[in-house]
Amino acid sequence: MKRLLRTLVASAFACLLLPLASGQPAAASAQADPIGMTSGFYTDPHSTPAVWAAANPGDGRAAAIRDNIASRPMARWFGAWSGDIGAAVSSYVGAADAADKLPVLIAYNIPGRDACGGHSGGGAGTPSAYRTWISAFASAIDSRPALVVIEPDSLGDFSCLSQARIDERNGMLRDALAQFTAHAPNTWTYLDAGNPAWIGADTMAQHLDGAGARQAHGFTLNISNYYATGENSAYGNAVNGSLSASYGYTKPYVIDTSRNGNGSNGAWCNPGGRRTGAVSQTGGGAEMLLWLKTPGESDGDCGVGAGSVAGQFLPEVAYKMIHGY
Protein backbone atom coordinates (compact mmCIF):
# COMPACT_ATOMS: atom_id res chain seq x y z
CA MET A 1 0.00 0.00 0.00
CA LYS A 2 2.86 2.40 0.78
CA ARG A 3 4.18 2.00 -2.75
CA LEU A 4 0.74 2.31 -4.33
CA LEU A 5 0.02 5.57 -2.53
CA ARG A 6 3.46 6.93 -3.34
CA THR A 7 3.01 6.00 -6.99
CA LEU A 8 -0.33 7.75 -7.25
CA VAL A 9 1.03 10.92 -5.69
CA ALA A 10 4.34 10.87 -7.58
CA SER A 11 2.87 10.11 -10.98
CA ALA A 12 1.42 13.58 -11.23
CA PHE A 13 4.69 15.13 -10.05
CA ALA A 14 6.61 13.03 -12.53
CA CYS A 15 4.80 14.80 -15.33
CA LEU A 16 6.59 17.97 -14.28
CA LEU A 17 9.93 16.22 -14.67
CA LEU A 18 9.16 14.80 -18.10
CA PRO A 19 8.35 17.75 -20.36
CA LEU A 20 9.72 15.92 -23.41
CA ALA A 21 7.73 12.71 -22.99
CA SER A 22 4.51 13.76 -24.70
CA GLY A 23 5.49 11.94 -27.87
CA GLN A 24 5.85 8.53 -26.19
CA PRO A 25 3.62 5.73 -27.45
CA ALA A 26 0.73 4.69 -25.25
CA ALA A 27 2.37 1.40 -24.23
CA ALA A 28 5.42 3.16 -22.77
CA SER A 29 3.44 5.87 -20.98
CA ALA A 30 1.25 3.22 -19.36
CA GLN A 31 4.20 1.69 -17.54
CA ALA A 32 4.40 2.21 -13.81
CA ASP A 33 6.73 4.96 -12.56
CA PRO A 34 9.75 3.36 -10.84
CA ILE A 35 10.68 6.69 -9.23
CA GLY A 36 7.26 6.97 -7.67
CA MET A 37 7.46 3.37 -6.47
CA THR A 38 10.60 4.01 -4.41
CA SER A 39 11.98 6.44 -1.82
CA GLY A 40 15.12 7.63 -3.63
CA PHE A 41 18.06 6.10 -5.48
CA TYR A 42 20.02 3.11 -4.23
CA THR A 43 23.56 3.55 -2.92
CA ASP A 44 25.61 0.44 -3.62
CA PRO A 45 27.48 -0.63 -0.46
CA HIS A 46 29.74 -2.78 -2.64
CA SER A 47 30.77 -0.18 -5.23
CA THR A 48 34.48 -0.10 -6.03
CA PRO A 49 35.10 3.13 -4.05
CA ALA A 50 33.14 1.76 -1.07
CA VAL A 51 35.12 -1.47 -1.10
CA TRP A 52 38.41 0.41 -1.39
CA ALA A 53 37.58 2.86 1.41
CA ALA A 54 36.54 0.02 3.74
CA ALA A 55 39.74 -1.91 2.99
CA ASN A 56 42.02 1.13 3.47
CA PRO A 57 40.75 3.01 6.55
CA GLY A 58 44.24 4.30 7.38
CA ASP A 59 44.76 5.89 3.98
CA GLY A 60 44.55 9.68 4.12
CA ARG A 61 42.26 9.71 1.09
CA ALA A 62 39.77 7.15 2.43
CA ALA A 63 37.46 9.49 4.35
CA ALA A 64 37.08 11.90 1.45
CA ILE A 65 36.39 9.07 -1.00
CA ARG A 66 33.92 7.45 1.39
CA ASP A 67 32.02 10.66 2.11
CA ASN A 68 32.07 12.25 -1.34
CA ILE A 69 31.86 9.30 -3.71
CA ALA A 70 31.09 5.96 -2.04
CA SER A 71 28.13 7.37 -0.11
CA ARG A 72 26.42 8.63 -3.27
CA PRO A 73 23.97 6.71 -5.51
CA MET A 74 25.66 5.47 -8.69
CA ALA A 75 24.91 2.98 -11.43
CA ARG A 76 26.15 -0.61 -11.28
CA TRP A 77 27.60 -1.93 -14.55
CA PHE A 78 26.93 -5.53 -15.60
CA GLY A 79 28.83 -7.59 -18.19
CA ALA A 80 30.61 -10.91 -18.58
CA TRP A 81 32.51 -10.19 -15.33
CA SER A 82 29.18 -10.43 -13.47
CA GLY A 83 29.08 -14.22 -13.87
CA ASP A 84 25.55 -15.64 -13.75
CA ILE A 85 23.76 -12.53 -14.97
CA GLY A 86 20.36 -13.57 -13.66
CA ALA A 87 21.72 -14.16 -10.17
CA ALA A 88 23.84 -10.99 -10.20
CA VAL A 89 21.00 -8.73 -11.32
CA SER A 90 18.45 -10.33 -9.03
CA SER A 91 20.73 -9.95 -6.02
CA TYR A 92 21.41 -6.27 -6.75
CA VAL A 93 17.82 -5.32 -7.52
CA GLY A 94 16.62 -7.35 -4.56
CA ALA A 95 18.90 -5.45 -2.18
CA ALA A 96 17.62 -2.15 -3.52
CA ASP A 97 14.02 -3.31 -3.32
CA ALA A 98 14.46 -4.39 0.29
CA ALA A 99 15.67 -0.87 1.09
CA ASP A 100 12.78 0.71 -0.89
CA LYS A 101 15.34 2.38 -3.17
CA LEU A 102 15.64 2.61 -6.95
CA PRO A 103 18.65 0.87 -8.54
CA VAL A 104 20.30 2.09 -11.73
CA LEU A 105 21.84 -0.69 -13.83
CA ILE A 106 23.91 -0.59 -17.00
CA ALA A 107 23.95 -3.50 -19.44
CA TYR A 108 27.34 -3.59 -21.16
CA ASN A 109 27.84 -6.82 -23.04
CA ILE A 110 26.87 -6.29 -26.68
CA PRO A 111 29.11 -8.08 -29.21
CA GLY A 112 31.84 -5.80 -30.54
CA ARG A 113 31.55 -3.50 -27.55
CA ASP A 114 33.53 -0.21 -27.69
CA ALA A 115 34.39 -0.80 -31.33
CA CYS A 116 35.93 2.65 -31.79
CA GLY A 117 37.59 3.29 -28.41
CA GLY A 118 38.91 -0.22 -27.89
CA HIS A 119 39.77 0.10 -24.19
CA SER A 120 36.55 -1.65 -23.12
CA GLY A 121 36.31 -4.12 -25.98
CA GLY A 122 34.62 -7.48 -25.65
CA GLY A 123 31.01 -8.46 -25.15
CA ALA A 124 28.97 -11.56 -25.80
CA GLY A 125 30.37 -13.77 -28.54
CA THR A 126 27.32 -13.84 -30.81
CA PRO A 127 23.95 -12.11 -31.21
CA SER A 128 22.29 -15.29 -30.00
CA ALA A 129 24.43 -15.34 -26.85
CA TYR A 130 23.60 -11.69 -26.26
CA ARG A 131 19.88 -12.33 -26.59
CA THR A 132 20.11 -15.07 -23.98
CA TRP A 133 22.11 -12.79 -21.69
CA ILE A 134 19.88 -9.72 -21.96
CA SER A 135 16.74 -11.83 -21.61
CA ALA A 136 18.08 -13.24 -18.33
CA PHE A 137 18.99 -9.69 -17.25
CA ALA A 138 15.45 -8.40 -17.82
CA SER A 139 13.78 -11.47 -16.31
CA ALA A 140 15.87 -11.12 -13.15
CA ILE A 141 14.48 -7.63 -12.52
CA ASP A 142 10.92 -8.92 -12.94
CA SER A 143 8.32 -6.51 -11.52
CA ARG A 144 10.71 -4.70 -9.19
CA PRO A 145 11.40 -1.03 -10.02
CA ALA A 146 14.65 -0.15 -11.80
CA LEU A 147 16.32 2.11 -14.36
CA VAL A 148 18.42 0.34 -17.01
CA VAL A 149 20.82 1.90 -19.53
CA ILE A 150 21.26 -0.41 -22.49
CA GLU A 151 24.77 -0.59 -23.96
CA PRO A 152 26.70 2.69 -23.70
CA ASP A 153 28.62 3.66 -26.88
CA SER A 154 26.64 1.26 -29.04
CA LEU A 155 25.06 3.98 -31.21
CA GLY A 156 28.16 6.15 -31.34
CA ASP A 157 30.34 3.36 -32.72
CA PHE A 158 28.67 3.11 -36.13
CA SER A 159 31.63 4.69 -37.94
CA CYS A 160 33.70 1.67 -36.91
CA LEU A 161 31.14 -0.91 -38.09
CA SER A 162 30.06 -2.21 -41.48
CA GLN A 163 26.45 -1.70 -42.50
CA ALA A 164 25.79 -5.40 -41.91
CA ARG A 165 27.08 -5.10 -38.34
CA ILE A 166 25.08 -1.91 -37.79
CA ASP A 167 21.91 -3.71 -38.87
CA GLU A 168 22.81 -6.63 -36.62
CA ARG A 169 23.46 -4.32 -33.69
CA ASN A 170 20.17 -2.48 -34.18
CA GLY A 171 18.38 -5.80 -34.13
CA MET A 172 20.02 -6.70 -30.81
CA LEU A 173 19.11 -3.35 -29.28
CA ARG A 174 15.49 -3.56 -30.42
CA ASP A 175 15.27 -7.07 -29.02
CA ALA A 176 16.79 -5.91 -25.72
CA LEU A 177 14.10 -3.24 -25.39
CA ALA A 178 11.46 -5.86 -26.13
CA GLN A 179 12.84 -8.14 -23.41
CA PHE A 180 12.48 -5.41 -20.77
CA THR A 181 8.99 -4.53 -21.98
CA ALA A 182 7.98 -8.18 -21.69
CA HIS A 183 9.74 -9.17 -18.48
CA ALA A 184 10.43 -5.99 -16.46
CA PRO A 185 7.26 -3.85 -16.59
CA ASN A 186 8.38 -1.44 -13.85
CA THR A 187 11.73 -0.65 -15.47
CA TRP A 188 12.53 2.49 -17.42
CA THR A 189 14.96 1.70 -20.24
CA TYR A 190 17.38 4.12 -21.90
CA LEU A 191 19.44 3.86 -25.07
CA ASP A 192 22.74 5.74 -25.06
CA ALA A 193 23.14 8.75 -27.36
CA GLY A 194 26.82 9.50 -26.81
CA ASN A 195 27.90 13.08 -26.07
CA PRO A 196 27.80 16.52 -27.72
CA ALA A 197 31.19 16.18 -29.45
CA TRP A 198 30.73 12.72 -30.95
CA ILE A 199 27.80 12.47 -33.37
CA GLY A 200 25.66 15.28 -34.83
CA ALA A 201 22.16 15.56 -33.37
CA ASP A 202 20.37 14.70 -36.64
CA THR A 203 22.52 11.61 -37.14
CA MET A 204 22.10 10.49 -33.55
CA ALA A 205 18.33 10.84 -33.84
CA GLN A 206 18.50 8.54 -36.86
CA HIS A 207 20.60 6.05 -34.90
CA LEU A 208 18.21 6.14 -31.95
CA ASP A 209 15.15 5.55 -34.08
CA GLY A 210 16.83 2.71 -35.95
CA ALA A 211 17.63 1.02 -32.63
CA GLY A 212 14.02 1.22 -31.45
CA ALA A 213 14.08 4.34 -29.29
CA ARG A 214 10.33 4.71 -29.70
CA GLN A 215 9.99 1.72 -27.37
CA ALA A 216 12.50 3.01 -24.79
CA HIS A 217 11.65 5.36 -21.96
CA GLY A 218 14.47 7.71 -22.97
CA PHE A 219 18.14 8.15 -23.83
CA THR A 220 21.34 8.94 -21.93
CA LEU A 221 24.13 11.43 -22.59
CA ASN A 222 27.75 11.90 -21.53
CA ILE A 223 28.29 8.43 -20.06
CA SER A 224 31.92 8.16 -18.93
CA ASN A 225 32.61 11.59 -20.39
CA TYR A 226 33.19 15.09 -19.10
CA TYR A 227 31.08 17.60 -21.02
CA ALA A 228 29.29 20.25 -18.96
CA THR A 229 25.61 19.86 -18.18
CA GLY A 230 24.65 22.86 -20.31
CA GLU A 231 26.41 21.44 -23.36
CA ASN A 232 24.64 18.12 -22.91
CA SER A 233 21.26 19.78 -22.44
CA ALA A 234 21.68 21.74 -25.67
CA TYR A 235 22.63 18.53 -27.46
CA GLY A 236 19.80 16.49 -25.91
CA ASN A 237 17.29 19.14 -26.88
CA ALA A 238 18.69 19.16 -30.42
CA VAL A 239 18.40 15.36 -30.64
CA ASN A 240 14.79 15.63 -29.52
CA GLY A 241 14.17 18.33 -32.09
CA SER A 242 15.39 15.96 -34.78
CA LEU A 243 13.38 13.04 -33.40
CA SER A 244 10.27 15.21 -33.44
CA ALA A 245 10.83 16.60 -36.92
CA SER A 246 11.80 13.31 -38.57
CA TYR A 247 9.96 10.65 -36.58
CA GLY A 248 7.15 12.37 -34.70
CA TYR A 249 8.17 11.73 -31.10
CA THR A 250 10.55 12.92 -28.39
CA LYS A 251 12.09 11.25 -25.35
CA PRO A 252 13.28 12.33 -21.90
CA TYR A 253 17.03 12.16 -21.43
CA VAL A 254 19.43 11.64 -18.52
CA ILE A 255 22.88 13.25 -18.27
CA ASP A 256 25.80 11.49 -16.61
CA THR A 257 27.29 14.18 -14.35
CA SER A 258 29.66 11.91 -12.45
CA ARG A 259 32.78 13.58 -13.86
CA ASN A 260 31.64 16.81 -15.51
CA GLY A 261 32.09 19.33 -12.69
CA ASN A 262 34.94 21.07 -14.51
CA GLY A 263 33.65 20.38 -18.00
CA SER A 264 35.76 18.75 -20.72
CA ASN A 265 39.27 19.63 -21.86
CA GLY A 266 38.69 17.74 -25.11
CA ALA A 267 40.17 14.42 -23.96
CA TRP A 268 37.97 11.42 -23.20
CA CYS A 269 40.39 8.88 -21.74
CA ASN A 270 41.37 9.65 -18.12
CA PRO A 271 42.07 13.38 -18.51
CA GLY A 272 43.46 15.15 -15.46
CA GLY A 273 41.90 18.12 -13.71
CA ARG A 274 38.31 16.86 -13.87
CA ARG A 275 35.73 17.03 -11.06
CA THR A 276 32.59 15.27 -9.89
CA GLY A 277 29.33 16.97 -10.88
CA ALA A 278 25.92 17.69 -9.39
CA VAL A 279 22.90 15.36 -9.35
CA SER A 280 19.23 16.29 -9.40
CA GLN A 281 15.87 15.27 -10.82
CA THR A 282 15.84 18.05 -13.38
CA GLY A 283 18.35 20.20 -15.20
CA GLY A 284 18.23 22.29 -18.37
CA GLY A 285 15.63 20.12 -20.08
CA ALA A 286 17.06 16.84 -18.79
CA GLU A 287 14.83 14.40 -16.97
CA MET A 288 17.57 13.70 -14.41
CA LEU A 289 21.24 14.32 -13.67
CA LEU A 290 22.74 11.06 -12.37
CA TRP A 291 26.11 9.45 -11.73
CA LEU A 292 26.31 6.66 -14.30
CA LYS A 293 30.09 6.23 -14.35
CA THR A 294 31.82 5.69 -11.01
CA PRO A 295 34.23 8.59 -10.31
CA GLY A 296 37.73 7.19 -10.00
CA GLU A 297 37.19 4.18 -12.25
CA SER A 298 39.65 4.14 -15.14
CA ASP A 299 38.74 4.59 -18.80
CA GLY A 300 41.72 2.42 -19.76
CA ASP A 301 45.50 2.53 -20.09
CA CYS A 302 45.72 6.23 -20.86
CA GLY A 303 46.00 9.74 -19.40
CA VAL A 304 46.24 9.92 -15.63
CA GLY A 305 45.21 6.25 -15.57
CA ALA A 306 48.29 5.02 -17.44
CA GLY A 307 49.02 1.41 -16.55
CA SER A 308 45.42 0.64 -15.52
CA VAL A 309 42.62 -1.28 -17.22
CA ALA A 310 39.12 0.00 -17.95
CA GLY A 311 36.94 -0.18 -14.84
CA GLN A 312 39.81 -0.36 -12.37
CA PHE A 313 39.31 1.92 -9.36
CA LEU A 314 42.14 4.43 -8.94
CA PRO A 315 42.00 6.10 -5.50
CA GLU A 316 44.35 8.95 -6.43
CA VAL A 317 42.22 9.83 -9.46
CA ALA A 318 39.06 9.66 -7.33
CA TYR A 319 40.59 11.86 -4.63
CA LYS A 320 41.70 14.50 -7.13
CA MET A 321 38.31 14.41 -8.83
CA ILE A 322 36.64 15.36 -5.52
CA HIS A 323 38.75 18.51 -5.37
CA GLY A 324 39.03 19.21 -9.08
CA TYR A 325 42.77 18.90 -9.59
From TrEMBL:
Signal peptide interval: 1-27
InterPro entries the record matches: Beta_cellobiohydrolase, Beta_cellobiohydrolase_sf, Glyco_hydro_6_CS
Q: Which UniProt keywords apply?
A: Carbohydrate metabolism, Cellulose degradation, Disulfide bond, Glycosidase, Hydrolase, Polysaccharide degradation, Signal
Q: Which GO terms describe its molecular function?
A: hydrolase activity
Catalytic residues as annotated in Swiss-Prot or TrEMBL: D153 (proton donor)
E.C. numbers? 3.2.1.-
Family label: Belongs to the glycosyl hydrolase family 6.
Report the PANTHER family cross-referenced here.
1,4-BETA-D-GLUCAN CELLOBIOHYDROLASE C-RELATED, PTHR34876
* Name of this protein: Glucanase
The species this protein was found in: Streptomyces rubiginosohelvolus
